């Protein structure tokens, strides 16, 4: 039997198991990830975040003194980036005194991201460039289809704008959306469904690659805001409401920043 300790946290109810593994000794096998993320027989989470020193990450050739956010989806797949996970990771580093101020850099597979903890408790992170493609793709779900904007936030997104009043709530996201052309997203995609509530105010639901419907997706919120900016030529910060809460995105050119809450809810020990 293997025993390990963990923390659990969430950002707008996108929830994560956090494993401290400074020197990269833990075996992050997909079967292990699936077992701990199982909501019936495991701890239950949308993903696992391993807290590891960048110098212990084989493919990392940047600043080795940083902490690296090693992110896995609940199905065991690796993702390049997780926006909500980054804030939860930052909160954990602060709580565990692994950083010595409220402003620090974090290494991720999508590059280095900056964290700023505000006095009122919200956390702002840089999210890199949100790159909106010129060509739309098609998303299908439940016998319907929509044009979708393809956005890269380090990880892949397809953003669908819905027009009808109750359409967002009526979607059945127990079913996985599909997309065309298949080559547009060779490693899968996160699909966001969006309603514009007012200028600069959006509501969104998401079907995450490697998980299914989640209560929130930080990179999805950034992708949605970037697609909205392009569609409506909008300026200024953009507020996005997801089932799990509220997040705000602002841009400097294509460079996005995401602000929202992050909470550590407890810690425990798991036997496998
Ligand atoms: N929930 C995350 C995104 C996690 C990764 C995603 N499912 C993927 O596979 O790209 C977020 O908050 O950004």
TrEMBL record:
Which domain of life does this protein belong to? Answer: Bacteria
State the EC number(s): 5.1.1.7
Which keywords, in A-to-Z order, does the entry hold? Answer: Amino-acid biosynthesis, Cytoplasm, Isomerase, Lysine biosynthesis
Reaction catalysed by this enzyme: (2S,6S)-2,6-diaminopimelate = meso-2,6-diaminopimelate
SUPFAM superfamilies in UniProt: Diaminopimelate epimerase-like (SSF54506)
Subcellular location(s): the record lists:
Cytoplasm
Write down the InterPro entries for this protein, in alphabetical order: DAP_epimerase_AS, DAP_epimerase_DapF
Enzymatic class:
isomerase
Residues engaged in binding substrate: 14, 73, 83-84, 155, 190, 208-209, 218-219
* Pathway of action: Amino-acid biosynthesis; L-lysine biosynthesis via DAP pathway; DL-2,6-diaminopimelate from LL-2,6-diaminopimelate: step 1/1
Active site per database record: 82, 217
Q: How does it assemble?
A: Homodimer.
Q: Which family does it belong to?
A: Belongs to the diaminopimelate epimerase family.
Q: What protein am I looking at?
A: Diaminopimelate epimerase
**UniProt source species:** Tessaracoccus lubricantis
């Amino acid at each position: 039997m293997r025993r390990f300790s963990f923390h659990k946290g969430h950002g707008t109810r996108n929830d994560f198991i956090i494993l401290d593994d400074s020197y990269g000794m833990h075996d992050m096998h997909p079967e292990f990830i699936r077992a701990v993320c199982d909501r019936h027989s495991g701890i239950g989470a949308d993903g696992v975040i391993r807290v590891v020193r960048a110098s212990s990450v084989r493919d990392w050739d940047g600043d080795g003194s940083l902490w690296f956010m090693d992110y896995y989806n609940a199905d065991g797949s690796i993702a390049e980036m997780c926006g909500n996970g980054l804030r939860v990771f930052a909160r954990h580093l602060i709580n565990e005194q692994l950083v010595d101020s409220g402003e620090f850099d974090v290494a991720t597979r999508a590059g280095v991201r900056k964290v700023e903890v505000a006095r009122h408790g919200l956390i702002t992170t840089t999210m890199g460039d949100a790159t909106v493609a010129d060509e739309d793709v098609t998303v299908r779900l439940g016998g319907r289809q929509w044009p979708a904007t393809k956005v890269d936030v380090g990880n892949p997104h397809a953003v669908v704008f819905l027009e009808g009043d109750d359409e967002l709530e009526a979607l059945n996201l127990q079913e996985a959306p599909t997309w065309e052309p298949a080559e547009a997203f060779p490693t899968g995609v996160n699909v966001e469904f969006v309603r514009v509530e007012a200028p600069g105010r959006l509501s969104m639901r998401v079907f995450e690659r490697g998980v299914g419907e989640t209560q929130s997706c930080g990179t999805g919120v950034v992708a949605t805001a970037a697609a909205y900016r392009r569609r409506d030529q909008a300026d200024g910060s953009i507020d996005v409401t997801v089932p799990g809460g509220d997040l705000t995105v602002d841009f400097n050119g294509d460079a996005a920043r995401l602000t929202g809450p992050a909470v550590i809810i407890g810690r425990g020990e798991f036997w496998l």
